[in-house]
Each structure stands twice: as structure tokens, then as C-alpha cells.
Automatic annotation (TrEMBL):
GO terms for molecular function: oxidoreductase activity. This is ER-bound oxygenase mpaB/mpaB'/Rubber oxygenase catalytic domain-containing protein. It comes from the Bacteria. It comes from Dietzia psychralcaliphila. InterPro entries: MPAB/Lcp_cat_dom.
Amino acid sequence: MPVMTTTASRALTGARRRAGLVVRSRIAGDDAAERRQQIWHSEGERWNSPGDAICAVHGDASMFAAGLTALLLQSLHPLAMAGVADHSDYRGDPWGRLQRTSQFIATTTFGTVADASELIRAINGVHRAVVGTDYRGRPYDARDPHLLLWVHVAEIWSFLECHRLYGRTPLSPERRDEYVRQASRTGIMLGAKRVPTTVAELDAALEEYRPELEASPAALDARHFLLNEPPVGWTDKPAYAMLREGAVAALPPWARMTLGLPDGPFGSRAAALHLGRTGVSTLRWVLDAVEG
């Protein structure tokens, strides 16, 4: 019996590690190990220390659900969503876009000041070409501080809310304010103005944008792609379904209503939150075998 138990334990450990490597590759790319070495271990000054709130939030598995929440919430601004629909390859290369986003968050959170600053400068350069009109003919420009603030507010609000719901260790109110303040640096460097530095300011900023938000055709298309046609194989669909439910449950009620989304399975937000916690915990478990 002990031999059988040991064999089964080794098999489980091996399967867990293989699953963790697959997840890491999907999120960070095939060169995830090299990128991790560059971001976390290269020499140089950093903006953040390992004990900072921003590292606790951005380094937690709750970010898997938070990324979906942020995309759904951001899609509600018709001008911001038009820019994504017109200039992003999120449909043609969803994993590539996810990997670039995860690299940006990891570099600006854990990387050196030099690497983070260079990446921000590159994105600011890309934004110069992101101009056009939305489905109603209204002009947009990715360098518009108002749109940049919306993207920042929706993202940071989603990351913080999903960490509150699904994070490994809850943050105190003081640490939540610390997170918003530390996250403001990137928003400011990308060109946003009046960037919130406290949770109260973050909530107020989100509320101020509500009159501008709507379920535009591009937003509904993104919702369908993210929730109904995700770019995952059949073996990954159960895990993705749990994250999807958790991500939707984390949205403000008015955002779910605007996008025409239910509160959860059979209308139960409690069930959706449970699925979200289970999905995040499962991913944390497999990733701990790789990165722990």
C-alpha cells in the first residue's frame, strides 16, 4: 500500500506540474521561463518591493478571472471598444494578445524601472496610430486622457475586486488604498489624467463614467467571443467555464445588466462566486507546482 500511495502521489505531482507548465505557456508564451528570468531576476532598480500591495494583487491567481472581468467592463465604453475592435487582433490572435498583456503587467509590476519604462514608451508610440470613429461616427484617439483613464479605472477596479473575491490573502482597507496608489503610476505614464489614488476615488471615477457606457455592437461581439466562443480546447473548457462565471459575477450589477448577462447559473450569483473561487484555486494549485 505505501508503494502504491507513493506511485500515485508521484503521478499526481507530475500531472500537476505538466498542467502548470501548460497554463504558464498559454498566459506567458512558450518562452515563459526566459521571460520570468528577465522580469524577476535581472539586475536593476524596481518601482515595487515584493511585500507591496500591487505585487500581492498582480501576483495572485485571481488575475485569471480579473482579466476577463476587466475586458468585459472596458468594452462598455463605445469609443474605447471601437479602438480595440478596429486595431486589436484579439480575435485573430487571442493568446498572443493575452501574452502581451500579461507581459506588460508583469514587467511594470515586478520588472526593472528601465524595462518597464521602455515598454510604456513603446505602447505610447503604438497608441499614436489608434484613431478612428465608432459605430455612430464619433471620433476616438487612444491618446485621449479621458479614454486612457477609463481603461485604467476599469482595469484596476476589476483586478482589486477579483482579488477581494478570489485572492489567496485578503487586503486590509489600508492595503487596498496602497494598491490603487501604486497602480496609478502606470496609468499616469500612459497618459491618463486625474488618476485615482484611493479606493474611494476609484469607485467614484467608475461611477462618473456610467452615463457614457453602453452595450455597443462591438461590446456585444466581444462579450460573445469571450464568454461563448473562447479560444480553448475541449479539455480546457471546464476550467474556463468556472473562470468565466467568476469573472461575470465580479462585475458591478449594472454592468451585467447592460451586457445582458445573468447573475450566475440559474440566476444565482452565489453559485457563480463559488465556481470562480474553485476555478482560481485550481489554477493556483497547478501553478504553485511550477513557480512555488
